[in-house]
TrEMBL record:
UniProt KW Mitochondrion keyword: no
Enzyme class, first EC level, given as a word: isomerase
Pfam families associated with the record: IF-2B
Molecular-function GO terms, alphabetical: S-methyl-5-thioribose-1-phosphate isomerase activity
Enzyme Commission number(s) from the entry: 5.3.1.23
Pathway(s) served: Amino-acid biosynthesis; L-methionine biosynthesis via salvage pathway; L-methionine from S-methyl-5-thio-alpha-D-ribose 1-phosphate: step 1/6
Family in the record: Belongs to the EIF-2B alpha/beta/delta subunits family. MtnA subfamily.
Positions annotated to bind substrate: R53, G54, A55, R90, Q202, N252, K253
Name of the protein described by the UniProt record: Methylthioribose-1-phosphate isomerase
Signal peptide (residue range): none
Function according to Swiss-Prot or TrEMBL: Catalyzes the interconversion of methylthioribose-1-phosphate (MTR-1-P) into methylthioribulose-1-phosphate (MTRu-1-P). Also catalyzes the interconversion of 5-deoxyribose 1-phosphate and 5-deoxyribulose 1-phosphate. Part of a bifunctional DHAP-shunt salvage pathway for SAM by-products.
Chain positions of site Transition state stabilizer: C163
Source organism superkingdom: Bacteria
Length: 355
């Protein structure tokens, strides 16, 4: 994908052949800065502090974090300590555990001196699979956009998305954005409504991505979506997800549930882009998901940049705050799930993803 006019993934191996590079998403979109991770603790802090974010990317960075840990100490105790340290960074996104479990299974039975090399190779496989999967999600979702474009006689298809489910939240392509990029490549006129997604303003990352790729879009406040649907200015909603439970409930960035309710009220189809590793058949319903409560300062203060690009922090309130990072959208509000294996409208069919 493109950033600063260059092709890039959102996680990579540095030229030294072992340290791991990521974009510092705390500085985006005001400044494009890269971080180098050299230890398992570096990876854990990057995930916990949201220097890197998005369920699929968290899993990929955690996989490389485990490899970094094994490079320093490949022993059994160090393996378990690295696994535990990375696992406790973010409780809600299931990709984190999925990737770490996969890594641990792959190396646990190996001789210690073999573990680091195999761990790096396995992390690279996880990244390559993510790229392929997201492209397949794009191919599955493209006909949905094509059908609306045909009904509109070629007029732009207006698509609303929430949070950042783009390539900065994955390794490449993104989940919710993959169909958008493929639609653009196919010559279909689209326009994207990009929710700001307070309090971390991840929508600004989506806007940055779309700008880099020349996709027409408008950055909107979170509460504008309902009015736009009421006016008939939204043709479809596509969101990503941090976890989908066995019954099809969707755990995604706070505010997703309200968009789903508005979509249902105005007969706007509501789609969820769902990679395999984000489906969680072991959790029965959304009520069983631990919702991450983050620091209230994220709500009470806003980080940004001044007109010259220098970082600034603005205090918004001295009142008490709460900051749940995610909400649960019931499966009954989901029109369909866009997966790498196709579009699935019945939550019961999602079990195929765990095969």
């Amino acid at each position: 994908m493109k950033i600063e006019g260059r092709d890039s993934r959102s996680v990579w191996i540095e030229p030294d052949g072992w340290s791991v590079g990521i974009f510092d998403q705390r500085r985006l979109p005001w400044a494009i800065e890269r971080l180098v991770l050299r230890t398992v603790e570096d990876a854990a802090v990057a995930i916990a502090d949201m220097a890197t974010r998005g369920a699929p990317l968290i899993g990929a960075v955690a996989a490389y974090g485990l490899a970094l840990g094994l490079r320093a100490d490949p022993g059994d105790s160090a393996l378990e300590q690295a696994y535990a340290r990375l696992l406790r960074t973010r409780p809600t996104a299931v990709n984190l555990r999925w990737a770490l479990d996969r890594m641990r299974r792959r190396v646990a039975r190996l001789a210690p001196d073999e573990r680091a090399a195999v761990a790096y190779a396995q992390a690279a496989i996880i990244c390559d699979e993510d790229v392929s999967m997201n492209h397949a999600i794009g191919q599955a979702g493209l006909p949905l956009i094509e059908a609306i474009a045909a009904r509109k006689g070629g007029a732009p298809v207006n698509i609303l998305t929430h949070c950042n489910a783009g390539w900065l939240a994955t390794v490449a392509w993104g989940t919710a954005t993959a169909p958008l990029y493929l639609a653009q490549q196919a010559g279909i006129a689209i326009h994207v409504w990009v929710d700001e997604t307070r309090p971390r303003n991840q929508g600004a990352l989506t806007a940055l991505e779309l700008t880099q790729h020349g996709v027409p879009h408008s950055y909107i406040v979170d509460n504008a979506g309902g009015l736009l649907m009421q006016r008939g200015e939204v043709d479809m909603v596509i969101v990503g997800t941090d976890r989908v439970t066995a019954n099809g409930d969707v755990c995604n960035k706070i505010g997703t549930y309200l968009k789903a309710l508005a979509a249902r009220a105005h007969d706007v189809p509501f789609f969820v882009a769902l990679p395999d590793g984000t489906y969680d058949p072991a959790t029965a319903t959304g009520a069983d998901v631990e919702i991450e409560d983050r620091a209230g300062d994220e709500v009470a203060f806003m980080n940004g940049a001044d007109t010259e690009g220098q970082p600034i922090t603005v205090a918004l309130t001295r009142s008490a705050t709460i900051n749940p990072a995610f909400d649960i959208t019931p499966a009954s509000l989901v029109t369909a799930y866009i997966t790498a294996k196709g579009v699935v409208s019945d939550a019961g069919e999602l079990a195929d993803l765990s095969g």
